[in-house]
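Task: sequence design from structure.
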């Protein structure tokens, strides 16, 4: 019989042999297309060749060491970016692949996009080259100790001094100190600071200002700026999220970002053509977070699937004397494989969102803001839903790995800790659901008044509420489990549920409920609407990309069938999780609910044979995964043992050549030799 190690390699090879499609055919989907994949793979190879990005001992390092390691990474990253003329997109992939939240991350992910979108052309001419070339290292300083979500309550002020033509930036209280600002603590020399704009005593609300923080000569904090790293966090260990307070810091009037609002020398304020234009930077970041969620889920699935395929535990096959691969237990499949389907659903919605955002960017250059609302609402709704799917799903997949999942060597923990912050930044997830719901509610009210008004495709279903009597009689038309698989039936079911929740929210409001009492309704509705558009996007994207020819080759058919099985899994998992809302008004019958449960079980079974193929399709390198459990070759046990070699507790500093731990003489020996007294039971009168 092969040893457990060899059996693992046999198992992973057997999994690959039974895969019904060619996984490499799907990899480009996750890289954003063939062309990008080629370029991105070349970048990955370049990073792997650079010792400075080596991650072998990363799991053993504390915060200060991780920060110190990150500084040479920053320098080399910028050198290579410059040398190879990387586009912003390539540079972003470079940073994703480094897989450490290096402390200039916010310079490119927030500072530059905000400058590009909110500085005027003249300002960009001056600041742009400095910022693009890292002479200015920037951060985005909005959140304060006292307020994050409630932007209108930010306390930092920018008061115009007409006499000197300057803004005076001030943090009047402790709660007004900027906090959580990535890249601020140690690295940035500039910040885009959100501050309340005040002219002649009048408060015009929060606006962005370019504020120098540190000297460009020697990096010392400038007069009036108190600045420091904010301390340890759940994740993003190498990042210097920071604290800053401004004591009447003076900057030129022209340092206000003036693309959308302007203030003249005379102190005359011009407001933007649309109040939401100022949040363009956030919308862009939310859009990228959708793709980031997909890749993070895919990463967890890769590790969890490969390990569960080689991990044998429990029931023994009497013929082979082999225990069962844990991936064959339905409970394991149920906790890992839906995450695979969510990764696919999310990537398709990411494509949809990217296209909408690109269109919006083209329109806005012509002064057309018609897509602004949709872009804002859908980036918010998808960001909120997909980051939660990822944060929860990755943890569930980690737990599925048993004890080894608790080890950092699993490769499931470091990146997940970092990912967890996505549910909070760029709009706290629960709060974002209010924006989606408010938008749907408004559309509903408009449609009731004007039933023939134009609605964009994802919200067109709201029209079904115009005839409410007919709406409440709608029932799911599926007469068998097979009919439940029909995309149109699924689409209608999700539309009906979301429409009903819109109606109920409207009724609650009509009956006088305060908006702040309707949080739960908003969360429910936003989730229902986003689940609907995700299922639509998955279906449409799949048909557009993989149902390509009327006379498909066997290979194309196999690929389409495989991805359709993942689509079905996503649909039935989501339906099953939300069954109560489909049953609640009688749209689903109890029999249809039972078919849903069965269809979910069947979908898990049909994805299972291809599970390792799907794990391979994402195209992650072993170096990137940095996981003993999820490497391509399946040698999980050997790799777990190998990684212990790097543990500093096993190194010379902590263990001598005889294998004896540091501190033995002083702390352990006295115990073992009875030099610490004998144990005596405590007497009742004891004072302790
Ligand atoms: C790792 C990390 C990096 C960050 N980087 C940056 C950065 O670079 N720059 C920056 O400016 N900020 C940054 N932030 C801050 C981040 O944007 C805020 O934390 C976020 O916007 C949430 O705000 P808050 O922390 O004030 O939460 P709060 O608003 O205090 O929320 C607390 C809770 O109250 C709920 N809540 C709040 N208001 C309402 C309401 N009206 N109705 C119902 N529920 C409500 C929320 O849902 C949440 O559950 C970062 C945060 C993290 C964790």
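Answer:
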């Amino acid at each position: 019989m092969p040893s457990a190690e060899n059996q693992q390699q046999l198992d992973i090879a057997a999994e690959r042999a039974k895969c019904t499609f060619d996984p490499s055919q799907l990899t480009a989907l996750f890289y954003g297309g063939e062309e990008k994949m080629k370029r991105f793979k070349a970048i990955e190879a370049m990073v792997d060749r650079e010792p400075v990005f080596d991650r072998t001992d990363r799991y053993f390092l504390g915060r200060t060491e991780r920060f110190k390691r990150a500084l040479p990474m920053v320098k080399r990253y910028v050198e290579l970016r410059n040398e190879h003329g990387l586009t912003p997109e390539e540079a972003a992939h470079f940073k994703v692949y480094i897989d450490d939240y290096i402390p200039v991350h916010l310079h490119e992910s927030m500072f530059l996009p905000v400058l590009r979108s909110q500085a005027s052309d003249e300002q960009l001419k001056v600041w742009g080259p400095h910022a693009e070339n890292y002479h200015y290292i920037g951060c985005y300083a909005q959140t304060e100790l006292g307020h994050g979500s409630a932007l209108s309550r930010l306390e930092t002020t920018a008061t115009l001094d007409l006499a000197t033509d300057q803004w005076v930036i001030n943090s009047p209280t402790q709660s007004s100190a900027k906090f959580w600002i990535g890249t601020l603590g140690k690295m940035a020399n500039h910040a885009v600071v959100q501050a309340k704009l005040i002219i002649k005593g009048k408060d015009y609300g929060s606006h962005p200002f370019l504020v120098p923080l540190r000297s460009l000569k020697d990096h010392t904090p400038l007069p009036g700026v108190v600045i420091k790293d904010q301390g340890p966090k759940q994740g993003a260990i190498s990042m210097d999220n920071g604290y800053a307070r401004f004591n009447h810091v003076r900057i030129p009037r022209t340092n206000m970002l003036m693309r959308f609002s302007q203030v003249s020398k005379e102190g005359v304020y011009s407001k933007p053509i649309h109040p939401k234009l100022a949040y363009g930077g956030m919308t862009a970041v939310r859009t990228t977070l959708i793709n980031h969620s997909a890749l993070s889920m895919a990463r967890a699935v890769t590790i969890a699937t490969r390990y569960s395929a080689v991990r044998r535990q429990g029931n023994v096959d009497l013929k082979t004397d082999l225990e069962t691969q844990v991936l064959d237990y339905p409970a394991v499949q149920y906790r890992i494989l839906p995450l695979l389907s969510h990764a696919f659903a999310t990537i398709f919605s990411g494509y949809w969102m990217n296209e909408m955002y690109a269109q919006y960017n083209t329109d806005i250059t012509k002064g057309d803001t018609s897509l602004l609302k949709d872009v804002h609402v859908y980036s918010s709704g998808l960001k909120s839903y997909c980051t939660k799917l990822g944060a929860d799903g990755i943890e569930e997949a980690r737990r599925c790995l048993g004890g080894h999942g608790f080890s950092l060597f699993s490769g499931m923990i470091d990146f997940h800790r970092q990912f967890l912050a996505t549910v909070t930044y760029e709009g706290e997830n629960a709060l974002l659901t209010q924006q989606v719901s408010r938008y749907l509610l408004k559309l509903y009210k408009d449609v009731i008044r004007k039933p023939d008004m134009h609605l964009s495709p994802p919200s067109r279903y709201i029209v079904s509420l115009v005839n409410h009597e007919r709406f409440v009689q709608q029932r799911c038309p599926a007469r068998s489990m097979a009919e439940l698989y029909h995309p149109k039936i699924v689409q209608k079911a999700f539309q009906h549920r979301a429409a009903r929740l819109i109606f109920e929210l409207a009724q609650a409001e009509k009956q006088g409920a305060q908006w702040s009492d309707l949080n739960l309704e908003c969360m429910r509705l936003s989730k229902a609407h986003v689940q609907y558009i995700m299922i639509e996007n998955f279906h449409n994207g799949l048909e557009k990309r993989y149902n390509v020819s009327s006379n498909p080759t066997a290979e194309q058919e196999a690929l389409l069938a495989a991805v359709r099985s993942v689509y079905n899994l996503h649909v039935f998992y989501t339906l099953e999780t939300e069954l109560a809302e489909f049953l609640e008004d009688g749209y689903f019958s109890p029999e249809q609910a039972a078919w849903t449960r069965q269809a979910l079980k069947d979908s898990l079974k049909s994805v299972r044979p291809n599970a390792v193929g799907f794990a391979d399709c994402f195209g992650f390198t072993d170096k990137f995964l940095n996981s003993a459990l999820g490497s391509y070759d399946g040698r999980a046990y050997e790799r777990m043992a190998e990684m212990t070699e790097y543990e500093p507790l096993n190194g010379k500093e902590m263990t001598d050549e005889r294998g004896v731990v540091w501190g033995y003489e002083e702390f352990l020996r006295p115990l073992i030799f009875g030099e610490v007294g004998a144990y005596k039971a405590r007497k009742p009168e004891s004072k302790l």
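The pocket of flavin-adenine dinucleotide is lined by residues 106, 110, 140-143, 147-149, 180-182, 236, 241, 421, 424-425, 428, 430-431, 519 (CB under 6 Å).
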